[in-house]
TrEMBL record, chain A:
Keywords: FAD, Flavoprotein, Oxidoreductase. This is Carbon-monoxide dehydrogenase medium subunit. Transmembrane segments: none annotated. InterPro entries: CO_DH_flav_C, CO_DH_flav_C_dom_sf, Diverse_Substr_Oxidored, FAD-bd_PCMH, FAD-bd_PCMH-like_sf, FAD-bd_PCMH_sub1, FAD-bd_PCMH_sub2, Mopterin_DH_FAD-bd.
TrEMBL record, chain B:
InterPro entries: Ald_Oxase/Xan_DH_a/b, Ald_Oxase/Xan_DH_a/b_sf, Ald_Oxase/xanthine_DH-like, AldOxase/xan_DH_MoCoBD1, AldOxase/xan_DH_MoCoBD2, AldOxase/xan_DH_Mopterin-bd_sf. GO terms for molecular function: iron ion binding; oxidoreductase activity. Keywords: Molybdenum, Oxidoreductase. Coiled coil: none annotated. It comes from Tropicimonas sediminicola. SUPFAM superfamilies: CO dehydrogenase molybdoprotein N-domain-like, Molybdenum cofactor-binding domain. This is Carbon-monoxide dehydrogenase large subunit. It comes from the Bacteria. The keyword Transmembrane helix does not apply. Pfam families: Ald_Xan_dh_C, MoCoBD_1, MoCoBD_2. Residues 19-139 form the Aldehyde oxidase/xanthine dehydrogenase a/b hammerhead domain.
Amino acid sequence: MYPTTYHKPETLETAVAMLQGSEEGKIIAGGHTLLPTMKNHLAAPTDVVDIRGIAALHGISDDSGTLVIGATTTHAEVAGSAVVAAACPALACLAAGIGDPAVRHAGTIGGSLANNDPAADYPAAVLALGATIVTNQREIAADEFFDGMFATTLEESEIITAVRFPACEAAGYSKFPNPASRYAMVGVFVAKTNGGVRVAVTGAGEDGVFRHDGLEAALSASFSPEAVDGVPVSPDGLLTDLHGDATYRANLVKVMAKRAVLASA
Amino acid sequence: MSEGIGARVKRKEDKRFITGKGKYTDDIRMENQAYAAFVRSPHAHARVLGIDTSAAEAMEGVVAVLNGQQLTGDGIGNIICGWAITSKDGSPMNMGAWSALATEKVRYVGDAVAVVIADSQSQARLAAEAVEVEYEELPVLVSTRDALADGAAQIHDNAPGNLIYDWEIGDAAATDAALAGSAHVTEMEITNNRLSPNPMEPRSAVAIYDEAEEHYTLYTTSQNPHVARLVLSAFYNVAPEHKLRVIAPDVGGGFGSKIYIYPEEITCLWASMKTGRSVKWTSDRSEAFLTDAHGRDHVSTAKMGFDANGRITGFKVDTIANFGAYMSLFSSAVPTYLYATLLSGQYNISNIHCNVRAVYTNTVPVDAYRGAGRPEACYLIERMMETAAREMGKDPAELRRANFITQFPHETPVIMTYDAGDFGGNLDKAMAAADVAGFAARKAEAAARGKLRGLGYSAYIEACGIAPSQAVGSLGAGVGLWESAEVRVNPVGTVEILTGSHSHGQGHETTFAQIVADRFGIPIDNVQVVHGDTDKVQFGMGTYGSRSGAVGMSAIVKAMDKVEAKVKKIAAHTLEASEDDIVIEGGAVKVAGTDKQMLWHEVGLAAYTAHNLPDGMEPGLKEGAFYDPVNFTFPAGVYIAEVEVDPETGVTKIVQFTAADDFGTIINPMIVEGQVHGGIAQGVGQAMLENVSYDADGQLLTGSYMDYCMPRADDLPSYTLEHNTTVCPNNPLGIKGCGEAGAIGSPPAVINAITDAIGTNDLQMPATPQAVWRAIQAAKSPMAAE
C-alpha cells in the first residue's frame, strides 16, 4: 500500500471539506473494495475519509411506509433488521447473501451503490424497487443513478447519506454466484411496486445493472414463474468472462428471474 | 488406551497450530534483517534490453538493487531439472537455461529480472516498481496443444520446436495390432487441466550470511531441506554443503509445490552475502499464483480395445505435457515414470503403449502436484473404462471387475510390478457403502424434483513409497530416494526420533511417535520427533510421493531394530538371562515367563552410566539407519461419486462420495482419514472448480481467488470412507501410503458421475456450471454446441 492519510470526521460538512482539501481524496466506509485495491497498488489516494463516524449516516427506519437505510448501515444490519424484514423481506435476504460474514459486518449499502460494481447485489434491489438515493446535495432516482460499470451520476465530493425504498407489494431476489468469487454472475431482482413490475439484472450486463423490458412486460401481465418461460433474453450486451459467456448468462437471467418470482411468494 | 499402531490418537502438533503458536519461516526475525522484493516481467516472452536501477537505488531504505548479470557473474549456477529423460531416438532431453534472475530473455509473466533489498518490505516493493526494464516483446506461446505446431513461438534456442523430449514406453506395434483385432475400440481426447497448488502458507525464505564464519543459514518453506541444501550447494554454488544450514520449520502445506528450489531462495542467499544483511522474502498470494509451480496440464488422445467378452486387448495413449517456461526440479519424471508406468491401472492389459512429448510454453513452470502423473493416468484410464462400458452397454462396475488383476505379484507391460491388492474386495466395499443397489430409486426421486442424478466409478492405483534408488537411478533420477532415521533413547528413557521426512501438515510428530510407542511401550508424549533442520538430522530425502510412511517410517523401524537389539543385550546382561528370552512390553524389559524385569528407563540409564555393560559394548543408546525400498508401494481403491445436476443452470452437487481405500497398515486412522478428505477436496477441485487460465498474451487470468476457484466447505459432501487392507509385503510395517490417493481417485469418479447424469461423455474438467450446461445443450441438439 502506498502511504496515505486517514481521516475520521464526525459531520458531513467536515467530511466534504476534507475531501475538497485533499489532493486525491477517497471516501471509505467498509473498505471492502477500496482497501484491496490500495493493497494491490491499483489505487493511491492521498487521503481516505472514513465516514463511519458520522452518526446521521447510519441506521434503519420506517418513514410512513418508506424504508430508509443510512449509507453506512452494514449488510449484516440490513440482513438482521426487523424493520427491513417487515417492509421488504427480499432486501433482507439479499443483504444476507452478500459476500461472507466478514464482508457483511463491514461492507455498507452506500459503499456498494457508490462503487456500482457490475456484480454487486444492491444495485439490483435499488433499481428494481425504484429506490431513491439521497445525498448531501440532492435526491437521485435509481433510474438516474447508475451510469455504467463502476460509474454513477454522483458528483465530486457528493456523499450518499441514505437510500429510500418505497413500499412494495411483492419482491424477490435470486442470485447465481460466481463459483470463485461468489459475486453475482447473474442476480435478478423482481418487484411489484406502485409503479408496476420492475425487473433489474446485476452481474450480467456489460454496462452494469439494467432493467429488462421483456421480463417486466411478461411479469406485468402475470406475476408468475411460468410467465418468464416465453420471454426471449438476448445475449447482446451481456458479459463474457472466464466463468460464463453471454449465452450462458442470458440463460441464467431467465432461470434466476423465475426463481426470484418464486422467492417473492 | 493404546497409543500404538492403529490407535486414533489426537495430533500432538495441533496444540501449537490451533493456538497460533506454530513457527513458520515468516515468523523468523533477524536483527539486521532486510527485505527482498522482486522485479518481475509483465510480459510472457520478451528480450531484456536494459535495466535502469538508478531511480530505485536512490529511494529511501534501499540497500541494493541486484540483477542477473551480477548473479551469474558471481558464479551462481542455473536452476536444474534432476531427472534425465532420454527421447525414443536416444537423444538427451533439451533443457533450456534457467537463471534465478533472467539475463537475456524473460519467458513467463512473473519471471524475475532483478531484486531490490531494502530496510522494509514496503520500501523494497516501492523501489521494485521504480526499476525500469526495457523489453522487446516476442511472440507468445501459451497453449499445450499449439506448442509443437509449425510457426509456434520458439522459447529456448536449444529446444527446437519447443520439444523437450519425445519419449515412449511399451510396445507400439503389438498395441496397434491388438487394437486392430479388437471387437470394440473406445477413443477419447482428454485434457487434464492445469492447477495451482495453493498451500495455505505462501513460500518464504530468510537467508542469513555470517561473514566471519563464511557460513549461510536458510530458513525456507521446504518439503525436503536436505535436498534443498544439496542442490543449492552442488548445482547453484551458493555455498559448500558444510557451510550451508537449511531449516524448514513449521510449513503450512506443500502439495508438491515446496519440493523445488525456486529462484527466490537462491537469490536471497546470494543477496545476503552481497549485502551483509539477513534477507527475508515472503510471497504474497498474487506472487504465489504467478510463480509457484503449477500441476498437470496434459492433452492426450487414447484408444482402448476390447474383445467380444469385454476384456481389454490394448491401450494406446499419446500425450503432450506442458512444462511451462522452464524445467522445474522433477518436471521431467512426472509425465513419464510417474504417469505412463501407471497406465495399466488395476487391469490385466497385455499391450500398452504411451508416447509423451514434453513442451515449453510461456507459462509458469509445471511440476509435481499432489499425485503427480498418477492422477493424469488414473483420469485417463477411468474415463476410458466408464465410456467404454456405456458404449458397449455393459455395467461399468462389472466391466472393471472382469478386467481386474487378481494374481500378485503382477508385472504390467509398463514396467511396474504390483505386489499386493484386493481390487474386487475394494469394489465390493465401495458398492455396498454407496448403496449402488438403491441408486435407481434415488435417480427416479431426483428426476421427480427436476434434477439429473448420476453415479460414477473410479478404480485407482498409484505407485507410492518413492522409491528404490537403484531403479530410479537406472531411469535417470539424479538422486537416490531412500530415507534415513536416528533413534535416540535418552538416559531417562524418553526418545527422540530424527527423521529425514518432513511434515508440512501430515502429522508425523504423532504418527512417528506412535510406532515408537508401539515398539517400546512408552507413551507418545515421551517421544519427540525432530525434522526439518540439516544441522540436526543426519540426512534425508524429504516428503512427497506418499513416502513418509512407507520409506520414512521404515527407516525408523530399522533404527528401532538396532536399539531393541542393544536394549535386549543390556537387559540380558543385567538380569543374567539369555537375550533370546528378553521381551519388551508395557514399558518394561522382561525375562519371559519370570518376574525379572528392568523398567524401560532403567535400561536407558544403564546404557549411559555404563557402569555395568556387557564386555566390549559401547555406552549410549542411539542408533541410525538408512532404508532403501525394494519396490514402489501400490495403494489402490474404488471411489464412487453420486451427483445431482440442475439442468437449468448446470450446477452440480456431489450428494454422496464413497471411498474404499487399501493403504496397507494404517498407523493412525484419524490422520489417514484427514489425508483422504483433503485429497478428495483437491480432486473435486480439479474436477469441478479449479483451472489455471492464461490469455493468448500469456497474462494469467486466474491470478486471485476472485477468478481461481478453490474448493470451499459447501462445495464438498460428507465423505463415506471404507478401508480394505492388504499389507504391503515389501516394507517392515506393511504400509502403502495415503497422501495422494484422494486427489488421484476422485476426479474421474466425479466426471463419470456427471456424464452419467447428463447422458453425454463429452465433458472436460473442470465441470463448471457453464461447462455442464453447455454439455447438456450440446447433447440435446448437436448443432447447438457450435
